[in-house]
């Protein structure tokens, strides 16, 4: 069943590419139907999930290299898979009108959906890497084909930078493969029997390779420079997928691969991870504060929000601290990944609406939109409040858990890290409120007359994301029941 | 001792095809060479079939100087299949009278015969277990190549042939010197005997001999410092020939080098692994750097093949250490051959050499554009294409053989190589004739529409290549490109099977 969920979009994409003479409306219909079917199947999987590794499937692939087709879901990957399915569906709905070359666009997005879902489901390093690399290629074509502004340059930078990361990751994987006694790429086997148990120096280098590869994707400071231009010049749906889904690949890889497979090295270098996390939080927030471009601003808040995830994962490696608090931090990190996917997806689609109307992202040229587009203003307000961590929305649940966990670890350094990160929340609040104030309130700006209120398809795309964010914020148990056992498992694995 | 001629059936098929083809050439009128192509293709197909059957048979040494092992089997299959593809490409050029030659010149029927002879020499190079056989094979593989390079009969072709010949003759003489030295030191030219006697020979002399021996091998492999001919031949020779000389001799050269390394390099006290590692670094780095700003797709591909030769040296560096090196090399060779041929097939199909001739190819032929994207991304090493798995196993082999730093350098070079492959892919997917890809809602003038990234450099005098490109695409070559791209992906996905078959 999981295999069907992964490859259904790809099959549909192949069909769209091959079958001649489809009208645009048919293509969009097929696209939305396929994404909806995938979401439905994912929901069924969620309901039927019973703990441990669910829906596991194994097949021989490259036995001589110890690599196989091995997929499965657990409390860490299932929420992300569900978030991926939802985000791709809303992108399909959002893009249903006024997209040029819609057939190729739909095929590309469906293929990307397979790639993203497959990455979160992969339980084999080589399979993970295949999907990781293909996600870069797919997103490159989205940016270069349907972006705006200086898209060729941004896309090239995105490709080169993340490809560098993927090769560092590949070297790390080869290290894990050669370091394990069993010569295998299987994640479950490598997790059970971590490689380099007695070679500290090498394991540190392998962690560095894997860590750099994933940090570029996440992205954390100082590996973030590809992100703002890529986001700014990508089409809105592309940005939503890039920020909502693909940034999670890095953090997910840290939790799925780096922590359980290199526990000793992770513990030794946990403070470095914590520092990187804190710096990302503060730097992302401060740079976002200085932006005059709405989309760049949202892109920098992504760096800030992913910084919390990295901070929490680093804190999980502080074995001297309290176990309960570390579990809380990891649980918060997973929640943050889901929450950030929903909120940033919504924010990027909103900036897409602005671009669609006014062809500009310039904060200074808007103003008083609330008067002409009340629904858009309402949506943006909810998204912004969710992003800054207002109680009652998902951002609060996630960030509260992370900060409580990090501070609760009880070491002086972690308390300092927690306090500094709270400052990050304050800055984020300031910059989002400032953005709301300048764009939506106050006197009318130069481009404000062009801004019409949201169209039904835009509303249908943005509203579900925010509704789900509110659902997580008000009643988080249904999500946390799934995430907490996985978080506890990660903490116990990294504490070995 | 085994000396059953049937053990050499694949080689005999190629030889027979070449001889029959040559006879047919003598009796057919000029310009009606189609039957020669058929004869040669049949010879190759027969050789391919015989090689596939022989691969399942018993291994061992025949005629005391020729090895039957996975190295030979894979080389036979890969060379025969690759040459078959080139014959199809070249025959398309002969029939249609365009796009096969450098200036749209027709290729005469002899081209097929020469291709077959060069392929035969390449196979024997890989199978040779005696330096004298190797030298003979080297000459057989090289001399037809010189003639092939000059087939264009224009100044570029002449320059290519001359450079190719001078480099080949010079480095070939160096190799002969190495062979002579080794014979003097060890009293034998058989790999096995050399392995036994070199340890007791003076190490400085052995080192000299090995270095000079390498010269010719690196010439065939297109590695530094024997690489100078590659860009000129690739640019000056007919496109199908360019596809041949950058693909097929490499297969034989690397197989031969691997056999020598495992056979008697290991017996010398010289640090040949470090030497080859440095050659590998120089080759991949130089190839990548030189490819960066090429505006001619053939030169770009030529430098890309040089950098690929650098990666291909990785498993050779660790020959004899661990069980990954041989499958890594063989798989990478096969993957490289199919992917590189696919890219050259696109060049043949388009008929234009400049990057701008490829602008908007996606609009004219989406399938060809997709095939090009798959092949180029494959050469980068994007999964799930075959070259990725080749690179993966090569990196793993190097690392497990104690050359982790070499794998890191190769990975860094791979990132650099993305840049110039993308320089080719991007214009292909741009709209061709229109200047700006204006989205429907783009009526509002904005910085977005006027950015330099969107504007297509279409102004200027229409190039002859561009005119040819607009006339249409060579159908046979399009099919070849699509098949090669599909095969590259299929070989990657089925790499489990391939590695099991090709492994020891």
UniProtKB/TrEMBL annotation, chain A:
UniProt-listed GO biological process terms: ATP synthesis coupled electron transport; electron transport coupled proton transport
GO cellular component labels: endomembrane system; membrane
InterPro entries to which the protein is assigned, alphabetical: NADH_Q_OxRdtase_chainM/4, NADH_UbQ_OxRdtase, ND/Mrp_TM
Protein's membrane topology: Multi-pass membrane protein
GO molecular function: NADH dehydrogenase (ubiquinone) activity; NADH dehydrogenase activity; ubiquinone binding
Subcellular location: Endomembrane system; Membrane
TM regions (residue ranges): 6-23, 30-49, 69-93, 105-122, 128-146, 158-179, 199-216, 237-258, 270-290, 297-317, 337-355, 367-390, 402-433
Keyword RNA-binding set for record: no
Domain annotation NADH:quinone oxidoreductase/Mrp antiporter transmembrane: ranges: 122-422
Alphabetized UniProt keyword annotations: Membrane, Transmembrane, Transmembrane helix
The protein's name: NADH-quinone oxidoreductase subunit N
């Amino acid at each position: 069943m999981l295999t069907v969920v992964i490859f259904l979009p790809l099959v549909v994409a192949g069909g769209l590419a091959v079958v001649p003479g489809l009208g645009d409306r048919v293509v969009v219909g097929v696209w939305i139907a396929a994404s909806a079917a995938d979401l439905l199947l994912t929901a069924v999987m969620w309901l039927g999930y019973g703990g441990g590794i669910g829906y596991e499937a194994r097949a021989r692939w490259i036995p001589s290299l110890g690599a196989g087709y091995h997929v499965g879901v657990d409390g860490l990957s299932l929420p992300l898979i569900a978030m991926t399915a939802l985000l791709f569906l809303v992108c399909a709905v959002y893009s249903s009108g006024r997209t040029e070359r819609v057939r190729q666009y739909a095929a590309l997005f469906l293929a990307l959906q397979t790639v993203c879902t497959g990455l979160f489901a992969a339980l084999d390093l080589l399979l993970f890497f295949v999907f990781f690399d293909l996600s870069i290629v797919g997103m490159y074509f989205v940016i270069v084909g349907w972006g705006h502004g200086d898209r060729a340059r941004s896309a090239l930078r995105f490709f080169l930078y993340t490809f560098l990361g993927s090769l560092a990751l590949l070297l790390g994987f080869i290290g894990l493969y050669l370091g394990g006694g069993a010569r295998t790429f299987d994640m479950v086997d490598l997790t059970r029997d971590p490689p380099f148990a007695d070679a500290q120096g090498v394991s540190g280098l392998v962690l560095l390779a894997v860590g750099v590869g994933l940090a570029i994707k996440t992205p954390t400071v100082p590996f973030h420079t590809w992100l703002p231009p890529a986001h700014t010049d990508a089409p809105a749906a592309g940005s939503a997928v890039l920020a909502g889904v693909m940034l999670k690949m890095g953090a997910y890889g840290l939790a799925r691969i780096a922590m359980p497979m290199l526990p000793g090295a992770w513990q030794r270098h946990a403070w470095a991870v914590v520092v990187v996390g804190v710096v990302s939080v503060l730097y992302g927030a401060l740079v976002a504060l200085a932006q005059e471009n709405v989309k760049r601003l949202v892109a920098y808040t992504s760096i800030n929000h992913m910084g919390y995830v990295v901070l929490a994962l680093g804190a999980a490696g502080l074995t001297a601290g309290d176990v309960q608090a570390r579990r809380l931090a990891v649980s918060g990190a997973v929640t943050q990944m889901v929450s950030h996917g929903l909120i940033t997806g919504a924010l990027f689609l909103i900036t897409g609406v602005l671009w669609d109307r006014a062809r500009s992202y310039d904060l200074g040229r808007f103003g008083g939109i609330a008067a002409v587009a009340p629904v858009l203003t309402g949506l943006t307000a909810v998204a912004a409040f969710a992003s800054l961590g207002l109680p009652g929305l998902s951002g609060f649940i996630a960030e509260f858990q992370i900060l409580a966990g990090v501070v609760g670890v009880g070491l002086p350094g972690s308390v300092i890290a927690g306090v500094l990160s709270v400052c990050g929340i304050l800055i984020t609040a300031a910059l989002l409120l400032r953005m709301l104030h300048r764009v939506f309130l106050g006197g009318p700006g130069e481009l404000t007359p062009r801004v019409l209120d949201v169209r039904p398809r835009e509303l249908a795309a943005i509203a579900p994301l925010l509704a789900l964010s509110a659902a997580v914020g008000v009643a988080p148990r249904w999500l946390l029941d799934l995430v907490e056992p996985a978080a506890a498992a990660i903490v116990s694995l990294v504490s070995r | 001792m085994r000396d059953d001629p049937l053990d050499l059936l694949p080689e005999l098929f190629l030889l027979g095809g070449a001889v029959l083809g040559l006879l047919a050439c003598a009796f057919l009128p000029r310009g009606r060479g189609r039957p020669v192509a058929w004869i040669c293709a049949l010879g190759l197909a027969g050789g391919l079939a015989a090689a596939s059957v022989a691969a399942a048979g018993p291994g061992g040494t025949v005629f005391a100087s020729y090895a039957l092992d996975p190295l030979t089997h894979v080389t036979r299959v890969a060379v025969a299949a690759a040459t078959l593809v080139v014959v199809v490409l070249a025959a398309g050029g002969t029939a249609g009278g365009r796009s096969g030659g450098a200036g749209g010149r027709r290729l005469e029927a002899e081209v097929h015969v020469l291709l077959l002879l060069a392929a035969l020499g390449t196979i024997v190079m890989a199978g040779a277990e005696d330096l004298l056989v190797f030298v003979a094979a080297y000459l057989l593989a090289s001399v037809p190549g010189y003639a092939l390079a000059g087939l264009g009969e224009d100044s570029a072709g002449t320059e290519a042939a001359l450079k190719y010949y001078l480099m080949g003759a010079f480095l070939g003489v160096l190799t002969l010197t190495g062979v002579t030295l080794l014979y003097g030191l060890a009293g034998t030219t058989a790999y096995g005997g050399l392995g036994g006697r070199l340890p007791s020979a003076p190490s400085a002399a052995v080192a000299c001999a090995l270095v000079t021996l390498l010269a010719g091998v690196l010439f065939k492999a297109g590695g530094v410092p024997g690489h100078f001919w590659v860009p000129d031949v690739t640019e000056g020779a007919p496109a199908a020939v360019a596809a041949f000389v950058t693909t097929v001799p490499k297969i034989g050269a690397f197989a031969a080098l691997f056999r020598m390394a495992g056979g008697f390099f290991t017996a010398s006290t010289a640090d040949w692994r470090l030497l080859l590692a440095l050659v590998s670094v120089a080759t991949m780095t130089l190839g990548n750097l030189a490819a960066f700003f090429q505006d001619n797709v053939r030169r770009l591909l030529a430098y890309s093949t040089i950098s690929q030769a650098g990666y291909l040296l990785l498993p050779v560096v660790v020959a004899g250490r661990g069980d990954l090196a041989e499958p890594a090399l063989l798989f990478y060779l096969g993957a490289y051959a199919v992917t590189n041929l696919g890219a050259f097939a696109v060049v043949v199909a388009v008929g234009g050499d400049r990057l701008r001739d490829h602008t908007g190819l996606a609009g004219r032929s989406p399938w060809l554009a997709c095939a090009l994207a798959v092949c180029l991304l494959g050469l980068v090493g994007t999964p799930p294409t075959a070259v990725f798995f080749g690179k993966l196993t090569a990196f793993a082999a190097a690392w497990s053989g104690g050359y982790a730093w070499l794998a890191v350098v190769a990975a860094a070079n791979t990132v650099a190589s993305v840049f110039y492959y993308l320089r080719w892919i991007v214009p292909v997917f741009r709209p061709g004739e229109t200047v700006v890809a204006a989205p429907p809602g783009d009526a509002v003038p904005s910085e977005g529409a006027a950015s330099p990234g969107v504007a297509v450099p279409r102004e200027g005098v229409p190039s002859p290549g561009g005119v040819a490109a607009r006339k249409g695409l060579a159908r046979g070559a399009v099919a070849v490109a699509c098949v090669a791209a599909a095969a590259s992906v299929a070989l990657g996905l089925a790499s489990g099977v391939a590695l099991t078959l090709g492994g020891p």
